[in-house]
Amino acid sequence: MLNYNLYDVIRNPIITEKSTMISEHRKYTFEVAKAADKPLVKKAVEAIFGVKVEKVNMLNVKGKVKRFKGRLGRTSDFKKAIVTLEQNQTIDLAGGVK
Predict the structure, then answer these.
(1) Where do the domains of the chain lie, and which CATH numbers do they carry?
(2) Contacts of 27 (CB under 8 A, 6+ apart)
(3) How does pLDDT run across 23-37, given as a tens digit for each residue?
(4) What is the 8-class DSSP label of residue 95?
(5) How far apart are CA 43 and CA 65, in angstroms?
(6) Which SS3 state, helix, strand or coil, does residue 4 take?
(7) How many Å apart are CA 92 and CA 29, to the nearest integer?
(8) Which of 5, 12, 58, 85 is the most exposed place for a label (fewest CB within 10 A)?
(9) Percent of the residues in the chain that have a pLDDT greater than 90, as a whole number
(10) Cα–Cα nearest to 85, from 46, 58, 54, 57
């Protein structure tokens, strides 16, 4: 994981109703690389968005079985990170990166 670019660690933000509600409490949700660990995610978020991270919680999300045009299929598994920022820090996900 040491040779990864920081933009490869943070795949994309997860914008859902629940993640929007917790962003009011300085918590932001991102899809991250499978091999990423907490210190690497913290370093990547601090470097990309220019904020101070208080803590990182991570979980593996299992894919769901869904139907695609009448056939059974499966969505992909992914790793999710919930990043809590320090006081008075925010990320503008709609505005882009620095």
Answers:
(1) 6-85 (3.30.70.330)
(2) 82, 83, 84, 85
(3) 999 999 999 999 999
(4) T
(5) 34
(6) coil
(7) 12
(8) 5
(9) 80
(10) 54
| 39-80 confidence digits (pLDDT tens) | 999 999 999 999 999 999 999 999 999 998 999 999 999 999
Reduced 3-state DSSP string for 35-65? CCCHHHHHHHHHHHHCCCEEEEEEEEECCCE
The token duo for 76 is 């992909």
CA-based torsion, 28, 94, 64, 8: positive or negative: negative
Is the distance from CB of 52 to CB of 85 less than 8 angstroms? Answer: yes
Taking CA atoms, 82 is separated from 9, 45, 55, 59, 71, in Å, by 14, 11, 9, 8, 33
Structural contact between residues 31 and 79, judged by C-beta atoms closer than 8 angstroms: yes
